Amino acid sequence: MEKTGTRPGAAWGIVIGGVVVFAAAPALLLATGHDTIKPSADSDKGLSLAGALIPALAGILLIRGIPLNAPRLLPETTDRRGLSRQAAALALIAFLWPLALFLVSAAGHHALVRDIWALAKPLVFLVLPLVLLRILRASGERDPFRLTWRPRQTWQWLAPIPAVLVFGWLSVLGPLAPPLPTAEDYPDPVVLAVGATLTFFTANVLEEVFFRGMLQTRLEALFGRWPGILLASLLFAWLHLPTHGQGALPLTLGAIVAFQGFFGLFTGYLWSRYRNLWAPIAAHTAMNTLPLLLM
Questions:
Q1: Residue 280's closest CA among 216, 228, 234?
Q2: Which candidate among 64, 66, 129, 276 keeps its CA 20 to 30 Å from the CA of 138?
Q3: Distance between the two ends of the chain, CA-based, in angstroms?
């Protein structure tokens, strides 16, 4: 585990708790006979549990091996108190927004949740976080974790390619992938184009910017690589609570951890090893948007 300024016990506690949750989620689904989950909010085609887990796990193995020894690319900070405030503010956004939408949906206002889900995302996961990060940073100090879209070294562009390609193939075209959408699923080309564009910006880009670029980076700086990845991945899975219901709440929680949570582990490791935000965005696009383009 990477050395951090926090107590080692806190980091190990996060790792142990996170591993337990990620192991318990698929175990719960299998124990209750639910080996098929809902892959997206608007899909009526099931995804097998193996189809959810294997692409992410295969991608993680490739990230670990390419290259064998990747340099640590996380900047240091002397303002740990400010960093803690920033991380706490981002984590609260990630926790409270899905909870609020879930309560609205549970009250019977499902259409309202669908209407505001994508439209409010830029405000909740971009504008508000940027304002809070600016307010909570140390006075007069440049934010060492400010996002950059242009990695400096060539290997940061080349090394993620195998993991992203293998993940994309297994997720979309592999033997365990769900059936591709058909023309009957999206009869209007305009609806398809608008939906694909909105998905790209509000999910593929915005979610990776917030959960990996903003939140996970600060959690890693506080607790270490894998505690940060685990926490950010669980909050990313929690994001899907209002839209990916599987019936009973325990089954919904198990499904979003088994699918979106493991996907978060994969994209989180992509970000942590390579610090190239385009890599997790490409993986997210392969999972969300590529099936639409293949129509």
A1: 216
A2: 276
A3: 44
Handedness of CA 131, 134, 137, 139 (dihedral sign): negative
**SS3 call for 168:** helix
* pTM beyond 0.90: yes
At residue 235's C-alpha, the angle toward residues 234 and 240, to 5°, is: 100
The DSSP output letter for 150 is S
Question: Pairing mode, if any, of strands 36-37 and 47-48?
Answer: antiparallel
> Cα separation of 87 and 67, whole Å?
29
The tokens of 152 are what?
A: 């400096």
pLDDT in tens, the chain (295 residues): 444 455 678 899 999 999 999 999 999 999 999 888 877 666 667 889 999 999 999 999 999 999 998 998 998 887 888 899 999 999 999 999 999 999 988 887 777 777 777 789 999 999 999 999 989 876 666 778 888 888 989 999 999 999 999 999 999 999 998 887 776 766 677 777 887 888 889 899 999 999 999 999 999 999 999 999 999 999 999 999 988 888 889 999 999 999 999 999 999 999 999 999 999 999 999 998 887 777 6
Evaluate whether 88 touches 220 at the Cβ level (below 8 Å): no
